[in-house]
């Protein structure tokens, strides 16, 4: 009886969310882990960067496709060098971008695996 009640409770909790919302939440949770593992060393957990070594990215105005290419390929300029991330797959990058938009962009749209795959086509 108890487990039946728990199951019913779990079901009613999930029923409040659409399939898209559940997917979005999964992206954000996974993206936060990926961000911590691959980006926070330099840009810090709060996205504020580190002095003048690593720029703050919490207010970056890059579009999602620009961000996907930057994460995959890295960037070198007169002021700094961000290494490429050849090991990150389209799904990882989609999750990182969705997390960043959720955390700092006030944007709850999922940047999907498919969109990321299209943007990264031909880039290794
Ligand atoms: C080794 C340090 C390092 C790591 C790790 C790193 N970055 Fe960067 N990132 C930089 C540097 C340095 C720049 C500035 C590059 C330049 O001057 O062109 C930069 C630039 C950026 C920018 C551009 C800001 C703008 O508006 O132009 C974004 C966004 C960004 N990084 C996101 C990320 C994400 C997401 C990750 C993880 C996948 C990541 N970075 C990992 C060092 C790093």
From TrEMBL:
Residues 26-104 form the Cytochrome c domain. Gene3D superfamilies: Cytochrome c-like domain (1.10.760.10). It holds the Pfam family Cytochrome_CBB3. Keywords: Heme, Iron, Metal-binding. It comes from the Bacteria. PANTHER family: ALCOHOL DEHYDROGENASE CYTOCHROME C SUBUNIT, BLL4482 PROTEIN-RELATED. This is Cytochrome c. It comes from Aquirufa avitistagni.
